[in-house]
Design a protein that fits this description.
heterodimer, A: 373 residues, alpha+beta, Rossmann fold, OB fold (Dihydrolipoamide Acetyltransferase, E2P), 2 domains, 6-stranded mixed sheet, 5-stranded antiparallel sheet, 33% strand, disordered N terminus, disordered C terminus, B: 281 residues, mainly alpha, MetI-like fold, 12 helices
Chain lengths: 373, 281
């Protein structure tokens, strides 16, 4: 493991732990959906479970909600053991992926549902429903049936229906995935603002890494039922622990090299490193590579010359594929530079090449794999 | 799109069928109900005598009332059997679901008459039930009131119509998204609250459809009272049958039929409206 895994954010337990997942495993038949997952959620934290489909992120959420029973492990909320309680006794609420609004109840009755089943005094229900609807800006829809509302509106009602119960932890199962791109962006910022305002911890499931980066205090990246890395968005991007993390979050170049006498060699490139001797895998973000003539002098700059193989313009930046010779192709993101051709000089800081632990994402031939996440 | 000739050809068989076997018989029945029988022959003389007889003769009213009572009992009994069965199968049967479903449906393939005779064999004086009771020394003499009573009719009809009640309820329960059940539990609803506030309201269309089946089919049944009912359980369809048969009073029989038909249509209309009111998709 690189030093990324023992970074301050992930090593120091959060100040006040709200929920604790201890060694949770879940098996469906012969499939190990979750393998020995342990993590903590702090009060008021926005924690995202990120992963591909089949990574077990939704199963973990359902275990916390109580819709599934763990095969092994425990879930604690403060001094209360959660995993042995039925869902209706847990002080968590869920926003479902397809909203799961009750079709036979209008918006007001949907929102009031949680209070009604817990026999809250009638006088109190009305006020709290009003308040919850105001919070999600849906007050004027109190009498509407869910089927007459748009996806975004149903989303807000689902949120109000969960939040009215004043849970300490809100579980959100890909709540924005059914919305179109623009609405999703808008809901993301509203969701984040709402979470800050009410100060409830959110456990948020998504497969969208941009969404995870934009919203989270910390991201827990799951892969095949195991926890790959848990860290803040900045940390997980700048210091990925594994090659998989580096590729899943953002884009990267994975360089496989040999360390010998404190120097790493990777194809035509070489630079000084603190790594011990042997094979290393390095993650180098495309934006770390610059045109040599534009760059300020680095103390640890690695210069190389390469031929432009492909140039993709995307407005704010250009995406280049650089053939460095010796079967090494690097991807670079540079400021718009106009049409390029032939060979150019590039440079990157050796400090930006982050040693990551190996993973199957790397091509078995040993040839650097530049697949982007 | 489709030519006029094509449409005519396609529409002709069903239209012909409906006219020949539905509208024509109903028209004849309707006409008959306003005629009368004089000196053993049908007289085509328009009058309201049959309807007057129907509403003034207490015998008919009494039988109508009994018929409604039996039909209502059958409806309630088959709902009480069919709903829990459908609920169990849909929500808690797990991998045995398919097998159990088939087992519930199988009796529908057995002839109505065979099942009727089976009940006769079970409930009779020297039947299976009395044999068992005597063997266990619960009774010395055969109990005679099992067979030939309204009870026997309700029992037999409940047995026959429970699958009909089960099917629409099961279909309605299967259509309830399971995330709604999870949402209810998530919001603090225990099993009871979840059932009463989510599952039951969402299954009402199926429940109404099932209840309508049981009630309407029982209302017009004449075989069950014939086989296991006896004189104390005569139903309105038996009266109609005898009026068209031995009694040879087709006009009165037709008048009663018209009344049953109108009641049934009104009932179907009402339940359909109710089902619409309770469906949310």
């Amino acid at each position: 493991m690189s030093d990324g895994a023992s970074s301050p954010q992930s090593a120091t337990p959060p100040l006040s732990t709200l929920l604790e997942v201890r060694g949770i495993a879940k098996r469906f038949g012969r499939a190990d959906v979750l393998k020995n997952i342990s993590l903590e959620i702090a009060a008021g934290e926005f924690l995202t479970l990120l992963g591909e489909s089949g990574s077990g992120k939704t199963t973990l959420l359902r275990l916390v909600a109580g819709f599934e029973q763990p095969t092994a492990g425990e879930i604690w909320m403060g001094k209360e053991r959660l995993d042995t309680l039925p869902p209706y006794k847990r002080r968590v609420n869920t926003v479902f992926q397809n909203y799961a609004l009750f079709p036979h109840l209008n918006v007001r009755d949907n929102v009031a549902y949680g209070l009604r089943v817990k026999s809250t005094p009638r006088a109190e229900i009305g006020g709290r429903v009003e308040e919850a609807l105001r919070m999600v800006k849906m007050s004027s829809f109190a009498d509407a049936r869910p089927s007459t509302l748009s996806g975004g509106q149903q989303q807000r009602i689902a949120l109000a229906r969960a939040l009215i119960n004043r849970p300490e932890l809100l579980l959100l199962d890909e709540p924005l995935s059914a919305l179109d791109a623009n609405l999703r962006k808008q809901m993301q910022s509203e969701l984040k603002a709402l979470q800050r305002e009410i100060g409830i911890a959110f456990l948020f499931v998504t497969h969208d890494q941009d969404e995870a980066m934009a919203l989270s205090d910390r991201i827990a990246l799951l892969r095949n039922g195991a926890l790959e890395q848990i860290a803040s968005p900045r940390e997980i991007y700048s210091r990925p622990a594994t090659a998989y993390t580096a590729e899943f979050i953002g884009q990267t170049n994975l360089l496989r090299g040999e360390v010998h006498n404190g120097v790493v060699r990777c194809g035509p490139l070489q630079w000084k490193t603190a790594q011990g001797a042997g094979t290393v895998v390095m993650s180098l973000r495309p934006e770390a590579i610059q045109f040599a003539e534009d760059a300020l002098p680095f103390p640890d700059g690695v210069r190389f010359r390469g031929a432009i193989r492909q140039q993709i313009y995307s407005g704010a930046s250009e995406f280049l594929e650089i053939d460095c010779g010796d079967n090494l192709t690097l991807r670079a993101r540079v400021p718009p530079a106009g049409p390029l051709a032939g060979e150019c000089d590039f440079v990157f800081s050796a400090a930006d090449a982050i040693a990551v632990s190996e993973s199957r994402a790397l091509a078995p031939s040993g040839k650097p794999d530049h697949k982007t996440a | 799109m489709y030519s006029r000739t094509y449409k005519t050809i396609v529409a002709a068989p069903p239209l012909l069928w409906v006219c020949l076997f539905l509208l024509l018989p109903y028209a004849l029945m309707f006409a008959h109900s306003f005629w009368l029988v004089r000196e053993g022959a049908l007289a085509h003389q328009w009058n309201l005598q049959n309807y007057r007889a129907l509403f003034t003769n207490p015998l008919y009213f009494q039988v109508l009332l009994r018929t409604a009572r039996i039909a209502a009992s059958v409806t309630v009994c088959s709902l009480l059997l069919g709903y829990p069965l459908a609920y169990y199968l849909s929500f808690h049967a797990g991998p045995r679901k398919e097998l159990l479903y088939q087992l519930v449906i199988v009796p529908l393939w057995v002839s109505y008459l065979v099942r009727g005779y089976a009940w006769k064999t079970i409930l009779g004086s020297d039947g299976v039930l009395n044999g068992l009771l005597q063997y266990l020394h619960f009774t010395r003499e055969p109990v005679s009131f099992f067979l030939y009573s309204p009870f026997a009719v309700v029992l037999m009809l409940t047995h026959i119509y429970t699958p009909f009640v089960f099917l629409p309820i099961y279909a309605a329960l299967e259509h309830i998204p399971r995330t709604l059940v999870e949402a209810s539990q998530d919001l603090g609803g225990d099993r009871r609250a979840t059932f009463l506030r989510v599952i039951l309201p969402l299954s009402i269309p199926g429940l109404l459809a099932g209840a309508t089946f049981a009630f309407v089919l029982s209302l017009g049944d004449f075989l069950a009272p014939l086989l296991v009912g006896g004189p104390s359980a005569t139903m309105i369809a038996n009266i109609v049958q005898s009026l068209f048969g031995a009694a040879y009073d087709w006009p009165l029989g037709a008048a009663i039929s018209v009344c049953i038909l109108l009641t049934t249509v009104a009932l179907l209309f009402t339940t359909e409206r109710l089902e619409k009111r309770w469906s949310f998709r």
